[in-house]
Amino acid sequence: MTPPFLIAGDAGFTVGAPAAATIPGAGTTTAVVTFHATTLGPQHATLTITSANGGTRQITLSALAVDTTAPTVTVPADITVEAAGPSTTVDFSASANDLVDGPTTPACSPASGSGFVVGTTAVTCTATDLQGNSASAGFSVTVTDHTVPSVTVPANITTEATGATTPVSFTVSARDLVDGPITPVCTPAAGSRFPVGTTPVTCTATDAHNNRASAGFSVIVTDHTGPTISVPGDITREATGATTPVTFAATASDLVDGAVTAICAPASGAAFLVGTTADYLHGDRRAP
Ligand SMILES: [Ca+2]
Ligand SMILES: [Ca+2]
Fold first, then answer.
1. In the prediction, which pLDDT does 286 show?
2. CA angle at residue 155 from 192 to 217, to 5 degrees?
3. Does the pLDDT value for residue 11 go beyond 90?
4. Ligand 2 centroid to 118 CA: how many Å?
5. Distance 202 CA to ligand 1 centre (A)
6. CA distances, 206 to each of 36, 141, 151, 174, 188 (Å)
7. How far apart are CA 55 and CA 38, in angstroms?
8. CA distances (Å), 238 to each of 49, 234, 241, 248, in order?
9. CATH among 2.40.160.10, 3.30.70.270, 2.60.40.10, 3.40.50.10490 for 72-144
10. For all residues of the chain together, what is the average pLDDT?
11. Per-residue pLDDT reduced to its tens digit, 37-93
12. Fewest C-beta in 10 Å: which of 108, 123, 136, 169?
């Protein structure tokens, strides 16, 4: 005789196969009982076993529902952003879900909305369920600086020569989003001596991450200043004939050109008539 034994459960658990077991003779059978706990803590279920002749027996099963599973933490992929300043605000979202507690908000360090410096910063997000099980996940925030500094130079400078070369000073500046003020390097440098004419000046600023920018202007040195001429005082000679040769020395010096030739008319050594002759001279090769 192989009477079936029926195993039935109350609400709160299910009985897996073989729920209806055929037990040959005085054998045993196995049924899988699964609790569906809706709360943590002790769980109870009652099994009723009915034999072929209608006899029943009830068995109370107990289980303890526990939560030893940490939440699952979801973080974004690694983030790369270009710096917006010495510190760059980066927002991100991370989430966590616990089998028992449901969605939770992980705590991230540094938190979303923090300021990140240039470089790579590791962010760790940790979620802890109500039973104290915690899990972490991480990603990185990389802030780059590919932005060149801004270089400020003056407008073209025009100045009158004060010598063969003329010292010219000027002020330039540069600023980087990340590094702040930077001192540009100018060629020629401020305070250099410039020749007459137009000389381009290039100023370059390099930030801490080797991003470089240049700006330029011109220094224009003009020479509108005539030479200084030295002539002798008025000369009086006694005539030696119809005309009398008179020699004299005249010199000219220019701020830019130095000594220049003074050309006299009449020239030194010319034959002068009796009377007064005005002698004119000029010497600056740039004279207007
Ligand atoms: Ca849990
Ligand atoms: Ca920069």
1. 42
2. 55
3. no
4. 10
5. 65
6. 67, 25, 10, 9, 17
7. 32
8. 162, 13, 9, 15
9. 2.60.40.10
10. 86
11. 777 877 777 777 777 677 777 777 777 778 899 999 999 999 999 999 999 999 999
12. 169
Q: Phi then psi for 267, rounded to 5 degrees?
A: -75, 160
The ranges of the chain annotated as CATH 2.60.40.10 are: 72-144, 150-222
- Strands 180-182 and 193-195, bridge-based pairing: unpaired
The Cα–Cα gap between 15 and 177 comes to 68
State residue 262's pLDDT score.
Answer: 87
CA distance 8 to 168: 104
Ligand nearest to the CA of 97: 1
> What letter would DSSP give residue 112?
T
Q: What is the CATH number of domain 150-222?
A: 2.60.40.10
State the DSSP string of 37-103: -SSSEEEEEEEEEE-TTS-EEEEEEEEEE---PPPEEE-PPPEEEE-SSSSEEE----EEEETTTEE
Which-ligand-closest: CA of 129?
1
The helix or strand, by DSSP H or E, that contains position 6, with its residue range, turns out to be strand 4-9
DSSP 261: -
Minimal CA–CA distance to 230: which of 256, 255, 249, 251? Answer: 251
Among 205, 203, 214, 153, residue whose Cα is nearest residue 176: 205
* pTM of the entire predicted model: 0.69
Residues with CB under 5 A from ligand 2 (ion): 145, 147, 176, 178, 207, 211
